[in-house]
Design brief:
With 68 residues, the protein is α+β, with helices and mostly antiparallel strands. It has one domain. The chain has two helices and five strands; from the N terminus they run αββββαβ. The chain has a three-stranded antiparallel β-sheet, with no helix packed on it. A two-stranded antiparallel sheet has the order 1-5. It starts with a helix and ends with a strand.
């Protein structure tokens, strides 16, 4: 799915990921931000990303899926 569709899913409380990821992203309503849950269990606020180009390229991808 497109990132636009993934954002709507995030807003509905779903976790989303790219097809090849073992981690996922989710929306934290209390902090009003997207949290990136990494493959190793670490979590990071998307606003604190160390590699903005990598994060933006993920947003441009169309292989997003909802975790069920």
């Amino acid at each position: 799915m497109s990132f636009a569709s993934a954002v709507f899913s995030l807003m509905r409380g779903h976790k989303v990921k790219r097809r090849h990821w073992t981690g996922y992203w989710y929306f934290d309503k209390e902090r009003n931000t997207v949290i990136m849950h990494m493959h190793d269990g670490r979590e990071q606020d998307i606003r604190e990303t160390q590699d903005i180009l990598d994060t933006l390229s993920n947003c441009a991808a169309d292989d997003w899926e909802v975790i069920v």
